[in-house]
Write a structure and sequence with these properties.
The complex is a heterodimer of chains A (319) and B (305). By secondary structure, chain A is mainly alpha-helical. Chain A folds into 2 domains: 2-73, no CATH class; 87-318, MetI-like (MetI-like fold), CATH 1.10.3720.10. Chain A has helices at residues 2-29, 34-39, 45-55, 61-73, 87-122, 127-141, 144-158, 179-209, 212-219, 224-261, 267-277, 280-308, 310-315. By secondary structure, chain B is mostly helical. Chain B has a single domain (36-296), classed as Orthogonal Bundle (MetI-like fold). Chain B contains 11 helices and no strands. Chain B has helices at residues 10-34, 36-53, 55-58, 90-126, 128-143, 146-157, 161-187, 191-198, 203-239, 251-259, 266-294. Chain B starts with 9 loop residues before the first helix and ends in an 11-residue tail after the last helix. The chains are: A mainly alpha (319), B mainly alpha (305). Chains A and B meet through helix 1, helix 6, helix 7, helix 8 and helix 10 of A and helix 5, helix 6, helix 9, helix 10 and helix 11 of B.
Chain lengths: 319, 305
């Protein structure tokens, strides 16, 4: 197991390296001169040039890249162009909110998905099953931000029950588990995930239910409910649990749009706002953070695969 | 000098191949239509293509023409879907939006297929360090969540539908590469490939004439599977304002405009989203149907009896 982990770490490092280079290049290749932008329109050429030297922009690219990496390892992520705030602080502020959103959505999706999937599998081809399958196809095709808009239409505009945006902080409330503000974003995110888990659980359960040992359990004369609960469920859960990790990563990525639309001040919104404002330090740092987060989550998922399925950790050596 | 086709003349072989593949195409088509989901998917796809090609003729109004006096109306006899905040007919805009959305989705998937398949072939056939480098590169691309790649590209290149094509296309490349790589690896050991090489065929001709035809079916299926995802990502990007810019209508940026007017014209936000959902659903069904039609022996876990 430890060998597997080490091997995976070695494989991940070049990915991280290339990703960091690509993100750094985003700023290099983007049009516009950061120094000129900081000083504004009225600055003279000499002032811009002086600023460039001051910011270290006249040094060669490779030197600047290495400098940037060095800074990152010392947790110095620079200051925002827009409001001079410490970028590290901005990210630290936004990150927990994003994780909270993803975690709550995942939790709901997992629980509901398991239940609905099991329901679907046990009553296969009945009207429940057909209904649930059709609905989940529909939910997978729905753009989640459109669902968000419809939910806002219903719950905020028409009924006035829930707020259409924000995390509660502006109103002076805490953002942590503030369900008034969490409900709509979570719902928009969760619906698609519920569909995914329902499908997985359903097919996994169907596979398990047709195996021999379930037939044996039934032949033994066990009540159907016991058969389900004790034998079928546990085995059906295994493959589904492995996709929880992947879906969490997908949720984190998919939050970008939802956060923007609900003005939920998480990581995704930070990135988008930075791009629209051309706030380069924030773009670089937050993009890097998100990508690293994504890579780390996928890495942990891979490790868990190796843990659950010994064939994977033993076969990975051929590449 | 072709490798092994020395018994028939070239033109006879070509005629035989063409008749064979025509028959196969027809039988695939028939099987596709027998499947209700596949049929629905094909109809949706056809309708979409017609909407995109004949947008000019089908749309009652010019999509960017302003009718300021009639702005923010709910659906009525003149404006079937109502009007937006600048008085433009939403129905016409939705139809023209199909054009851009379809173009971007299709171009992206084709781009992804072309680049992904060629790199996958090269990686799988060459093996060794070439293989490692190529696949490591695609693994890195996979590490970027889909939308973030688009965001990063827009930060560099500016918002434009072609940038969206690039972003979405790059997202699909790793899957194509992996697919063709594994097929290349398994077929390159088969005897006829060794025979071709012994007869002196060049590496390129082996790759493209012998290995590529094996890849065709999975690649086409993958294109059909990747297309709805591509359309969703494009919609997300243009919702964020990172794709086609106003006044050009895409379903995504129409949804963004709609959000500001939920009070006045609630239906504004409904129609573009319905179309996105319908198209994605239809393409998903089409892809499923295609998968079944191309390989009826395939046992799908969800349908296991």
């Amino acid at each position: 197991m430890r060998d597997y982990i080490i091997r995976r770490i070695i494989q991940v490092i070049p990915t991280l390296l290339i990703a960091s280079i690509l993100i750094f290049m985003v700023i290099e290749l983007a049009p516009g001169d950061p120094a000129a932008m900081m000083l504004g329109f009225e600055a003279t050429d000499e002032q811009v040039e002086a600023m460039r030297i001051d910011m270290g922009l006249d040094r060669p690219v490779v030197v600047r890249y290495l400098d940037w990496v060095w800074d990152i390892f010392h947790f110095d992520l620079g200051k925002s162009f827009v409001n001079q705030q410490d970028v590290g602080g901005l990210i630290l502020d936004a990150f927990p909110k994003t994780v909270q959103l993803a975690a709550v959505a995942l939790l709901i999706a997992v629980i509901l998905g398991f239940v609905l999937g099991m329901l679907s599998a046990v009553n296969r081809n009945s009207w429940i099953d057909n209904f649930l399958t059709s609905i989940s196809s529909l939910c997978l095709a729905l753009p989640n931000f459109w669902l968000g808009i419809l939910l806002i239409l219903l719950f905020s505009v028409t009924l006035g029950w829930l707020p259409a945006s924000g995390t509660g902080q502006i109103a002076g409330e805490s953002w942590f588990l503030n369900f008034k503000y969490l409900t709509l974003p979570v719902a928009s995110l969760a619906v698609g995930q519920i569909a995914v888990f329902t499908r997985y659980m359903r097919s996994s359960m169907i596979d398990v239910l047709s195996t021999d040992y379930i037939r044996t359990a039934r032949a033994k004369g066990l009540v159907e409910r016991v058969v389900l609960a004790r034998h079928a469920l546990r085995n059906a859960l295994i493959p589904v649990v492995t996709i929880i990790g992947i879906q969490f990563a997908r949720l984190l990525a998919g939050e970008v749009v939802i956060e923007s639309m609900f003005a939920y001040t998480g990581l995704g919104r930070l990135v988008i706002t930075a791009i629209l404002n051309r706030d380069y330090p924030v773009i670089q740092a937050s993009l890097l953070f998100v990508v690293v987060l994504f890579i780390v989550v996928n890495f942990l998922v891979d490790i868990s695969y190796g843990y659950f399925d010994p064939r994977i950790r033993l076969s990975r050596s051929e590449k | 000098m072709n490798g092994l086709n020395t018994t028939k003349t070239d033109s006879e072989t070509k005629k035989y191949k063409r008749k064979f593949s025509e028959k196969k195409l027809v039988s695939v088509f028939i099987r596709l239509t027998k499947n209700p989901k596949g049929l629905f998917g094909m109809i949706v796809l056809l309708a979409l293509i017609i909407m995109a090609i004949f947008a000019q003729e089908l749309a009652p109004f010019d999509p960017v023409e302003l009718h300021l006096r009639d702005k923010l109306q709910m659906p009525n006899a003149t404006y079937w879907f109502g009007t937006d905040e600048l008085g433009r007919d939403i129905f016409s805009r939705v139809i023209h939006g199909a054009d851009i959305s379809l173009e971007v989705g299709l171009l992206a998937v084709i781009l992804g297929a072309v680049v992904g398949v060629s790199t996958g072939l090269i990686a799988g056939y060459s093996g060794g360090s070439v293989d490692s480098v190529i696949m490591r590169w695609w693994d890195t691309i996979l590490a970027f969540p889909a939308i973030f790649l688009g965001i990063a590209l827009v930060a560099i290149l500016g918002p434009d539908p072609m940038v969206a094509v690039l972003a979405v296309g790059i997202n699909t490349m790793p899957t194509f590469a992996r697919l063709t790589r594994s097929i290349a690896i398994s077929t390159k050991e088969i005897e006829f490939v060794s025979a071709e090489r012994a007869l002196g065929a060049s590496n390129w001709s082996i790759m493209f004439k012998s290995i590529l035809p094996n890849c065709l079916t999975p690649v086409i299926v993958n294109m059909a599977l990747a297309a709805p995802g591509a359309i969703l990502v494009e919609a997300s990007l243009s919702y964020l304002g990172l794709g086609a810019q106003p006044p050009d209508p895409t379903w995504g940026n129409m949804l963004q405009e709609a959000q500001a007017y939920l009070n006045q014209v609630p239906t504004f936000s409904v129609f573009p989203g319905v179309f996105i959902t319908l198209v994605v659903l239809g393409m998903n069904f089409f892809a499923d149907g295609l998968q079944d039609a191309l390989d009826p022996r395939r046992i799908r876990a969800a349908k296991r009896g």
